[in-house]
Write a structure and sequence with these properties.
The chain has 306 residues and is α+β, with helices and mostly antiparallel strands. It has 3 domains: 17-76 and 213-238, Pseudouridine synthase; 78-210, Pseudouridine synthase (2-Layer Sandwich), CATH 3.30.2350; 243-304, PUA domain (Archaeosine Trna-guanine Transglycosylase, Chain: A, domain 4, Roll), CATH 2.30.130. It has helices at residues 29-39, 70-74, 110-116, 141-146, 185-195, 229-232, 250-257, 264-267; strands spanning 17-23, 45-47, 56-63, 78-86, 88-90, 99-101, 122-126, 135-136, 139-140, 156-169, 172-179, 200-210, 213-214, 245-247, 262-263, 275-280, 286-293, 298-304. Strands 1, 2, 3, 4, 7, 10, 11, 12 and 13 form a 9-stranded mixed sheet that branches. A 5-stranded mixed sheet has the order 14-16-17-18-15. The longest helix has 11 residues, at 29-39. 34% of the residues are buried.
């Protein structure tokens, strides 16, 4: 039987949110995602920014409709601690690869190291590792490299906000790095080793921060179970801490759920700047991301979570 009553917007999914995991070294990011997926069967799960098997630290896993925020989370700035071994090179640019030591390496002084760092700051152009997940004509670069094919990845712009020496005792150099999305720490190790004329590769790597999420509050995979996962899930709103927020009334929410643009008459006069905005229901749940243009008088939903 048909009715003229408007459809009630769907309630937020019972299992939806983000997990801030502390990935151990020696396992793939995919393995952790699969472990979470087994705890929430029939619910979509994905990660927001992979870590190499050798690396440890923060891995963000999105559950349910929060997987629509993966791209947003991937754009958050990141922090790392890395131990670079100087005096040798690796085909994978880390300790998991085939390592070739320099027979008589030049041993840079602490001042040499400090003087080599400034060119890595700011907007730089970086060549990704041959062993990376980037695609070349539809194939992963690491698959081509493992098969012995030549890999040609074009340099691309990345942003490094901070790089500093924590400790240096030849041949080990410990660095602290803050950077933007898409930066390869392995490439920094390679390029720094070349700048110091001795070679270098990543021996140890820990991702300590992603946006507002720090390692101190991350959850170990051993602490996850079907009984505990709910209490470790963070609300989807935590993924967009810096966006202005707009609470929708039921009528506005109905339009947003259907992907309809809100007009000036429907919007009223929200006192928030133009650009991306987090859209909330009356309970404070993130229901969508949208683009707001107060001058033109419209709000367009971009990613709807319910």
């Amino acid at each position: 039987m048909e009715t003229d009553e408007p459809r009630k917007p769907a309630e937020p999914a019972a299992v939806m949110g983000i997990l801030i995991l502390n990935k151990p070294s020696g396992i793939t990011s995919r393995k952790l995602v699969d472990r979470v997926a087994r705890l929430v069967p029939r619910i979509k799960v994905g990660h927001a920014g992979t870590l190499d098997p050798l690396a440890s630290g923060i891995l963000i896993v999105c559950v349910g409709a929060a997987t629509r925020l993966v791209e947003t989370l991937q754009e958050l700035p990141k922090s790392y601690r890395s131990v670079v071994r100087l005096g040798a090179r690796s085909d994978t640019l880390d300790a998991d690869g085939r390592i070739v030591a320099e027979p008589c390496p030049r041993v840079p002084s602490p001042l040499d190291v400090e003087n080599a760092l400034p060119p890595f700051l700011g907007q730089i152009v970086q060549r990704p590792p041959d062993y990376s997940a980037l695609k070349i004509k539809g194939r992963r670069a690491y698959d081509l490299a493992r098969a012995g094919h030549a890999v040609e990845l074009a340099p691309r712009p990345v942003r490094i906000d901070h790089i500093a020496v924590l400790r240096y005792a030849w041949p080990l150099l410990e660095l602290e790095i803050d950077c933007g999305s898409g930066t390869y720490i392995r490439s920094i190790a390679r390029d720094l080793g070349e700048a110091l004329a001795c070679g270098g590769f990543v021996e140890n790597l820990v991702r300590t921060r992603v946006g507002p999420f720090t390692l101190e509050r991350a959850v170990g995979p051993e602490d996850l179970s079907t009984e505990s996962i709910d209490r470790h899930l963070r609300p989807a709103l935590d993924a967009v801490p810096n966006l202005p927020r707009l609470v929708l009334d039921p009528s506005q929410l109905e339009s947003i759920v259907h992907g309809r643009r809100l007009t000036a008459a429907e919007l009223g006069s929200p006192r928030i700047p133009a650009g991306r905005v987090a859209l909330l229901d009356s309970a404070g749940n993130l229901v969508a991301l949208g683009d707001l243009d107060p001058r033109e008088g419209w709000l367009q939903p971009r990613k709807v979570l319910i």
